[in-house]
Amino acid sequence: MYCELFSADRCHSCQWLDKPYPRQLADKQAALAGLLSAMPVEQWLAPVASLETAFRNKAKMVVSGSVERPLLGIVARNGQPLDLCACPLYPPTFGAVFDVLKVFIARAGLTPYNVARRRGELKFLLLTESHHNGAMMLRFVLRSDTKLAALRAQLPWLRARLPQLRVISVNLQPVHMAILEGDTEIILTDETALAERLNDVPLFIRPRGFFQTNPAIAARLYATARRWVGELAITSLWDLFCGVGGFGLHCAGPDIRLTGIEISAEAIASARQSAQLMGLGQVAFQALDSTRFARSRDDVPDLVLVNPPRRGIGAELCDYLDGMAPPYILYSSCQAESLARDLLTLPAYRIVKAQLFDMFAHTAHYETLVLLKRA
């Protein structure tokens, strides 16, 4: 992949862009194998490769420059803003949207926020596209509600030019720091969630909910989990750190009782909406802390599926799972270092299968899926 800003030594977001992609994939596989070297893996499956360009479904753009000439992108290491509207990681549909948004910023008088001067209102633009139907969600991150009325007044102009914007919201982030979002979300459209569909499973993305940024690889990851689980004789499944339910909903079926646990109420609302559309009866999604939920239960499911944030599931939950002794654990990890650390605290389990999914091409990051069986 060629990137003008990387070649000019101005943007380093893709740290590995100077490596040929096959070498990137091989280096990631070697790194993962090294991290898991203390734990024998019975079956390694081939890494799942990403597209090299246009694979992201989401752009997180820092807004800088002036209200008349806004820049959408990042702030470089030297403090200078870089416009990333032509970034080759974004799908081709994003460029035309960014062009209209720059005009909209001027029309609505949304002065870009300057961190050093603590002035301005518009901090970030967050744009997400549905892999399923091309519909989009747009979030404006503002310092305050001062410009909210002006933004609302210009929305008809914006929606007439970009009818694909189905969900539009404002997030208020008043802290004088480069923090992505605050606690207050104001929905400006009738639709409140972006409809997505990976494989045959309907999913919903809400403004403050997490969703994978590489939907093609996410679909492969979920399909693999469903295939692995389908090869096991299980009737009950816990999906901890379930997010919008992608893993659990792929693995659920008429003969499997699914319990999904996630701390985010927005994500649970999305998961419940998907389960209802799918007509699943033996499903319960709850907005709870995953570790506290597990420790409060006396029953033992046939399989515990975990998809934690980068920090991993932690020693407390590992110790509890090791003692609770479900026959299988399916662990999806976005941080292999924390995965390896967690696996060392599950001594009663062996790794049956492991596979790398390259969710983040041109960087050192990747997803890992491992199936553990009680020894």
How would you describe the overall organization of this protein?
About 30% of the residues lie in helices and about 25% in strands. The chain has about 375 residues and is an alpha/beta fold. It has two domains: about 5-50 and about 215-375, Rossmann fold; about 60-190, OB fold (Dihydrolipoamide Acetyltransferase, E2P) (Beta Barrel). α3 (about 95-110) runs antiparallel to α4 (about 150-160). The longest helix is centred in the N-terminal third of the chain and has 16 residues, at about 95-110.
Layout of SSEs?
Layout: H1 4-7, H2 21-35, E1 41-44, E2 58-65, E3 70-75, E4 81-83, H3 93-108, E5 122-129, E6 136-142, H4 148-161, E7 165-172, E8 184-187, E9 194-198, E10 201-205, H5 215-230, E11 236-240, H6 246-251, E12 257-262, H7 265-278, E13 283-287, H8 290-296, E14 303-306, H9 314-324, E15 328-333, H10 336-344, E16 349-357, E17 367-374
Parallel strand pairs: 1-16, 6-7, 11-12, 11-14, 12-13, 14-15
Antiparallel strand pairs: 2-3, 2-5, 3-4, 5-6, 7-8, 9-10, 15-17, 16-17
Summarize the structure.
The chain has 375 residues and is α/β, with parallel strands linked by helices. Helix content is 30%, strand content 27%.
Strand content: 25-35%
User: Which value, in Å, is the CA radius of gyration?
Assistant: 22 Å
Task: Identify the CATH architecture of the largest domain.
Answer: 3-Layer(aba) Sandwich
Overall 3D form: globular
The main sheet orders its strands as 1-16-17-15-14-11-12-13
Succession of helices and strands: HHEEEEHEEHEEEEHEHEHEHEHEHEE
